[in-house]
Design brief:
DUF2520 domain-containing protein (chains A, B), 6-PGluconate_DH-like_C_sf (chains A, B), N-(1-d-carboxylethyl)-l-norvaline Dehydrogenase, domain 2, alpha/beta, TM1727-like_C_sf (chains A, B), Rossmann fold, P5C_Rdtase_cat_N (chains A, B)
Chain lengths: ~250, ~250
Amino acid sequence: MKIVFLGSGNVATNMSIAMQNAGHAVMQIYNHRIESAKLLAEELKCSYTDQLTDISVQAEVYVISVKDDVIEELAKQLSISGKVVVHTAGSVPMEALSAATTNFGVLYPLQTFTKGRLLDFKTIPLFVEAADERTLAIIKELANTISSSVKEADFEQRKILHLSAVLACNFVNHLYDLSQDLLKVYQLDFDALRPLVLETALKVQKMNPHEGQTGPARRNDQLVIAKHLQLLSNNVPLKNIYTILTDSIVKSYQ
Amino acid sequence: MKIVFLGSGNVATNMSIAMQNAGHAVMQIYNHRIESAKLLAEELKCSYTDQLTDISVQAEVYVISVKDDVIEELAKQLSISGKVVVHTAGSVPMEALSAATTNFGVLYPLQTFTKGRLLDFKTIPLFVEAADERTLAIIKELANTISSSVKEADFEQRKILHLSAVLACNFVNHLYDLSQDLLKVYQLDFDALRPLVLETALKVQKMNPHEGQTGPARRNDQLVIAKHLQLLSNNVPLKNIYTILTDSIVKSYQ
């Protein structure tokens, strides 16, 4: 398929490269910051623009991968009625695209994309939704060429998938960050935690996290918990996080 | 070296097998529950007992790997003075072993051990400490045969390592568990999150978690945060966890 990307951030970069690798023609990259559009376009060897009026009308699918709160505004400024237009956001309804076309939909990848890390798209779950059956068929066809895990999800489900991803990824990464901060104060290196971090994630690839839970809160070991709270007595924010998560674990195994 | 294990739980199982594989003679397993001792002893093809009076005096090193709060009590009942005795706990001082011998120390593996998962010990960081230089040398020699990452750490450092492991492993796993609970309510499967969980851990194997942070809180995207809080309006405990971690991320990037 002929595809135009609006946006050139981490999601757009990963997804456009995956689509090109799957044999699609990524024709053009739009970004209101021309340098960002250029960077991705050079990677893809395609054209680029920072002008909405210069966006090609030759493509079949337009992928909008910009910040949540500008998706609707951007869609309003597009003149591509009759084309398939999708966004890639977890928490935005597909109707945000209705000003651009009647053939709108969603192509939501449930993954964290980071600058400089190109992921294997095949394993990334893609959740799709569309305004009509024909559009859904086109989005699914496209999605199936880049991922082996394509499922339909309505807006309610997609919002929950996004929220659960925040818990299992964004909050998790912040706990890694808090651990590193804590270790630094005692001249200890985060390297020591890396095998533990990896094993914790590997473990739940095959088992249920509820069964895999370990640690003082799981054993309701109040002696160790009291020692940890003592160590955190000068760090009230972290002490509060420790308390709320420990209580949650203890309750969950009562 | 000739080694006796007191305890036959997840840590003892993983560590004794690693020591045997490294060429040491694991002579005996003690557990007050004979069935548990027997299970590990059969794996190792060694003897076992549930009687402290039957513990062999022929070993050079005794590894105590039992619940934190019974380590000291167990050490008091041992008649192995002159032998090297270590425990494997993060939050217990080595002096808890002083009733058993003068040659006490610690061999603390920074990893999560789970029933049925045998890990490659080579990559597991081991933190050691001992009452005297000779004991330290013996513990280090033993540790180096099973892991390529052996470091000294005093009690203060070991407690912080344990605390940081609680954040980066136990709390992280609980967030996986909370995500699964949330998905279940909407007939969604945790399978959808597994690639994300793995990528989040893989990412910080090479990069700093602070740089790798993504998500609405990192962008201070108050619209999405408000939507998520709305979704959690009937789940006060999870709403509180969401709020405290989101606030912590927002503050950390201000």
